[in-house]
Amino acid sequence: MDDPLVVGIRWGLYLTLSATFGVPLFALVSIAPAHRDALPLRTIVGLSAAAALGLSLLGWIAMTAAMAGKPLAGVTRDDLGAMIAMPGLGASWLIRIAALVVVLGASIARFQRMLLAVGVALGAVALGSLAWVGHGAAGDGIAGPLHLAADGVHLLAAGVWTGALIALSLLLWRAARDVSVVEVTHAALSSFGRAGTIIVAAIVGSGLVNSWVLIGPGQVLDLPGTLWGRLLLAKLALFAAMLGLAGLNRWVLTPALGRNPVTIAPATVLRLRRSVMVEAGAVFTVLALVAWLGTLSPSALN
Q1: Domain ranges within the chain, ordered by starting residue
Q2: Could you tell me if 3 and 66 are in contact, meaning their C-beta atoms sit under 8 angstroms apart?
Q3: Which letter, b or e, does each residue of 104-127 get, where b requires 16 or more Cβ atoms within 10 Å of its Cβ?
C-alpha cells in the first residue's frame, strides 16, 4: 500500500500528534509554572490537535480507498463501516478521535494546568493509537504483543523528542529577540538534557525489539537490497546525526549559554537555534521515512 497520499497523511499524523503530546509534556517537565507563558501552549496544542483530527478523518478515507482499490470519491459508507469494524484498527481510530476532541476542547478553555494534563494524558493515547496501524499490529503469537508494546514505546519516546524540539525552537526564537527569555530557555534545555538519556534509551531499546521481530539478526546484511531496508538504514543514519547534535547542544552549547548571559548569550542562542533547527529537520525527515516504511512490507527480507 505504497500510496503517496497515505504516506503524507501518516507523516502529518506523526508530526501533529507528537506536538499535541510532546509540547505540553515538555512544558510540564522542563519549564517552571511561572514561565510557561513563554510558549503559546493553547495555540500549539489546539492547532496540532485540530490538524491531527482532520488528518485522522482524511486518513481513514484514504486508507479505506487504498485497501478497497477505489478512488477517494468512490469510497462508500459501507466501505468505511467495514474498516471501523476491523478488530483493533477501528477501535484505535475511534479512541484517537475521542481523545483529540477532548484535547481540542481543553485548548479552548482557559485553564492552562488542565490543558497540560489533558494534552499529556490524552495526547499519549492518541499518539500511541498509531501503533495499531503499523507493523506491530500485524504480529501473532508471543512476538505480537511484544512488538505492539515496543511500537507504542517507540512512538511515545519519539513524540517527546519531537515535541521538545518544537518547543525549544520557539523558545530560542523568542530568546534571540528578548533577553529575558534566555534564562528560561537555558533552564528548559538543562532540564530536558537530563531526561534525554531516558528518551534515547527508550527509542533504542524499543527499536531493537522491533528490528528483532521484523528482521532478525540473520537478515541484517540483506537490508541494502530492498527499498524497505534502504529506508531503514537512512532512518538510522539520521538518528545517529540527531544524537550527535543533541550531544553538542547538551554538553557544549547549553553550558555556554549559562556562563555569561550578557556577553555570550546572543551568539550562543544563535548557534543553539541553528543546531536545534537542523536537529528538528532531521526529526521531521525521520518521521517521513517512518511514514513510508509503515506502508511497505519488510517480508522481502525473509
Answers
A1: 4-301
A2: yes
A3: bebbeeeebeebbebbbbbbbbbb
Q: What's the pTM value of the predicted model, to 2 decimals?
A: 0.93
What does the pLDDT average to over 253-264?
A: 73
d(CA 143, CA 212): 10
In the block, cell 522542563 appears at: 30
pLDDT digits (tens, 9 = 90+) for 56-81: 999 999 988 888 888 888 899 898 88
What are the start-end ranges of the H helices in the chain?
4-30, 41-68, 77-84, 89-108, 112-128, 143-175, 182-214, 227-248, 254-259, 265-293
Residue environment code for 138-151, b if the CB has 16+ CB neighbours within 10 A, otherwise e: ebeeeeeebbbebb
Q: Tell me: the pLDDT tens digits for 103-128?
A: 999 999 877 778 999 999 999 999 99
- Cα distances from 20 to residues 153, 167, 283, 288, 291, in angstroms, run 16, 11, 16, 18, 18
181: which residues sit within 8 A by CB, 6+ positions away? 38, 171, 174, 175
| Dihedral over alpha carbons 28, 166, 243, 218 (to 10 degrees) | 100
Which of 178, 193, 189 is CA-nearest to residue 266? 178
Please state, in angstroms and rounded to a whole number, the distance separating the CA atoms of residues 119 and 24: 6
